[in-house]
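INFO batch 0412 | record 1 of 1 | parsing
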Amino acid sequence: MDDASGTPQDIKNDITNLQFATPRATQDITGIDKSAMERLLLLADFSITLNGVFNSAANKSHDVFKTIPSTSVTRTTSMTVNGVSLNNECLYTDYPLTRSNSGELTWAVPGVLADGTVPTWA
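INFO prediction complete | emitting tokens
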């Protein structure tokens, strides 16, 4: 993932889990002559939530996310699993931190598609 300056940073060691979705919007086009729904596929989208542990070391997760509240930059987000990758330009919208009663400091950072490019596995 890019930091605010556009420099790629490898923060996978700080990420404990993630959720992402690649939904398509639909439009109902059912005419009154139908007995079942008719729909068209519309635009594609991408959303992601990264969850992880606070790490303030240089070029780690805190360095990447600390500028979310003060900058409006698109960040390249790259995921690779078993030799296939999904790369998207994302806007990250929050950097919430949570401290549990046992002392862990964690974050859950949400992001959304920024540039209109259809999410495609390569």
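INFO post-check: The first helix runs from residue 61 to 65.
INFO record closed
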